[in-house]
Amino acid sequence: MKNETDFLSDKLENKAVLFAAGEGEVLSMGGNSITLKITSDISNDQLGVYEIKLAPATIGARLHYHRFMDETFIVRRGTLTVELADGPVLAHEGAVVYVPRMTPHGFSNQSDEEVIINLIFNPGQQREGFFYGLKSILTEPVIDAAKYLKLYQKYDSFPVDIQNMLPETGPR
């Protein structure tokens, strides 16, 4: 039989993970990229952390919302335009934008310079699966809107305007 002190002791683990600058799996789509940092598998689905590089004049995502996760944007370089229900806000380098679940939002780089952000989802909801699917769909010769919507919904993303959900893309 265990004594009382066994119930009062913490079982410590050594599970810290370090991703140095430039480390992580990179998914490239044209002039944009997503680097997987802390995935749902690493965090036991508690959160997902990703580095996003947006080329100039690029839409990251049109107005949408999440039912089961919050999203946080941390601007590391450039100016990110975050679209909210009452209009756009400019998030300059160093800014943090927190978007709780059920809050319509979108984001883009409307500048003429690259924008780099860290994107955090809480909980993670296996978000990297969305990014793998996004790369697959957006690099096809023609974007299949039905497939895009199915991917969105599978990973807790719901467009506010289904008729205007596809990102504008240039040559792939």
Task: Give a brief description.
The protein has 172 residues and is an alpha+beta fold. The chain has helices at residues 4-8, 40-43, 127-138, 145-154; strands at 25-29, 32-38, 48-54, 58-65, 70-77, 79-84, 87-92, 96-99, 105-109, 115-122, 158-159.
Explain what the structure shows.
The chain is of the alpha+beta class and 172 residues long. The chain has a domain at 25-126: Sandwich (Jelly Rolls). 18% of the residues lie in helices and 38% in strands. It is built from 4 helices and 11 strands. It has helices at residues 4-8, 40-43, 127-138, 145-154; strands at residues 25-29, 32-38, 48-54, 58-65, 70-77, 79-84, 87-92, 96-99, 105-109, 115-122, 158-159. Strands 1-2-3-10-5-8 form a 6-stranded antiparallel β-sheet. α3 runs antiparallel to α4 (145-154). The model has no long low-confidence stretch (mean pLDDT 92).
